[in-house]
Amino acid sequence: MAESSQLLLVLDLVGTFAFGLNGALTAVRAVRLDLVGVLTLGTMTALGGGILRDVLIQSLPPATFSDLAYLGAAAAGALVAFFLSLPLERFTVLIVVFDAIGLSVFCVTGATKALEFGLGGVQAVLLGGLTAVGGGTLRDVMLRKVPTVLVSDLYAVPALVGAGIAVGAAHLDLGPLVVAGVAAPVCFAIRMSGVVFELNVPTAPGRGSREQD
Amino acid sequence: MAESSQLLLVLDLVGTFAFGLNGALTAVRAVRLDLVGVLTLGTMTALGGGILRDVLIQSLPPATFSDLAYLGAAAAGALVAFFLSLPLERFTVLIVVFDAIGLSVFCVTGATKALEFGLGGVQAVLLGGLTAVGGGTLRDVMLRKVPTVLVSDLYAVPALVGAGIAVGAAHLDLGPLVVAGVAAPVCFAIRMSGVVFELNVPTAPGRGSREQD
Amino acid sequence: MAESSQLLLVLDLVGTFAFGLNGALTAVRAVRLDLVGVLTLGTMTALGGGILRDVLIQSLPPATFSDLAYLGAAAAGALVAFFLSLPLERFTVLIVVFDAIGLSVFCVTGATKALEFGLGGVQAVLLGGLTAVGGGTLRDVMLRKVPTVLVSDLYAVPALVGAGIAVGAAHLDLGPLVVAGVAAPVCFAIRMSGVVFELNVPTAPGRGSREQD
């Protein structure tokens, strides 16, 4: 159990750092915000999903506030993105990759924490998905973009699949390392396949292709 | 009391289904999202108001998560809208009607649940209003529209009136069926009158007509 | 202690009134909403930060709902702005000033309430900042503007400085009047200096000036 929560913390911090990088990078590219704006958007992206999760399972104050390592990881990610933004921006794919890392890790930690707080299996899967997509949705709303979770092919789906694997593995009493070691990579692989191969989930019958902006 | 919470649940599910339909229909028409996007926006519209209510009265985890019937009703509404979107879209008025049904039911259930959790009368009216307008506001923010509650004539007002009737009737110890049977139709009637007759509440003195988009 | 919470309440109401004025004034100018829309946006701006704070420290139902004075102060501010909007709009600076007053007061009350609920010093500073910028961020999202906290020079910084002074003074056991009397004016002075002198915090290296809208 102690081992489990250790791993949960480490994974949470990895996801927080990745989303901090992603949010800050997005901010620099989309709006060219100043240092405070970049830090703010980076930390909101990084911490938003976890805060939402903790509010809904009533784990308050949120881990973000009770353990300062979260804020540190988020800020570190945002600062790295801010100061390295010029070279990094050549690699647009990095934004997508960091987002996919955060997504993959948070769907597992969200689902696992929900189980620990006594929620049922299906609910834990949903909460894992919410944790994974929450921060990025907040980021997009703040930048006035239609949220990725609405328009992107395979964004919510891999998060729910990852959370589902995590819940299934937990029911089989597999160790936490196994749970995370399978669920997160599967989520990551599905998400990146969607990006690379531009896979689509079906649109409403009789409709042409989606109009994005 | 058991009868009351039975009725509350049924009404909540009706409102959830109606908002699921409305959110998904709005999504298909506004952005032509894919299946996952439509399901996501439909369920967010359907569940957003109730989650907000449950967080604020500390009924956690929210009913949405503890009782899967909510998710089922929301997803059912969204799926119906998705697969029937082509014929349905001819009837623009249906979007408004489903929204009005959700509004009318949620103002009652929100106010009633707030009373059950010990809030005062005025607070229960406010919370009923918040429950009713919460999901639609989330929907509009996600689609980058100025929320209906800000620009629409008679949207918050009927919700508050409906919640007020529900609270008043509860203080008079009328049965829950009477409460809902009066409050929800009154809210619905006011809302639809506003739509049909384009009734306006006054704008700031010395101003021309509102500019919407 | 009783003195402290008395002062906290008075300050909270002052901030609520100021943000109610600000939110309503912004609404009238930006979208020319009707009376209900102006009231709604005014109260959301005024109450959003405090509700966010109370959810995160689990002081539920939020003070906004348990003490109706908050709603009264918010609505009073919004109504004043609505009926005086024509003469007031000549003084654009008033919008900024009311916003700065709300910011300065809420960073202090947010941090102080967080300390009273047992949060650590750093967390209390963060929560004070969140309380201060929360309502305005909600206002901007509802009106589809990039939130001030992201694009404005010196908005989050003075809020965090004010909260930091409040937490530091509380640790030194200075009386609540001293805490508020120093922290809030310092925050206000920094914020207004930023506005008046157009001070900038640094943007990402190698970048031109920010592009706002």
Automatic annotation (TrEMBL), chains A, B, C:
It holds the Pfam family Gly_transporter. It is a multi-pass membrane protein. Keywords: Cell membrane, Membrane, Transmembrane, Transmembrane helix. The lineage of its organism: Bacteria, Bacillati, Actinomycetota, Actinomycetes, Pseudonocardiales. The keyword Cell membrane applies. Belongs to the UPF0126 family. It comes from Saccharopolyspora gregorii. It comes from the Bacteria. This is Trimeric intracellular cation channel family protein. The chain crosses the membrane at residues 6-28, 35-56, 68-86, 93-111, 117-138, 150-172, 178-201. It is found in: Cell membrane. Residues 10-84, 97-169 form the Glycine transporter domain. Its main location: membrane.
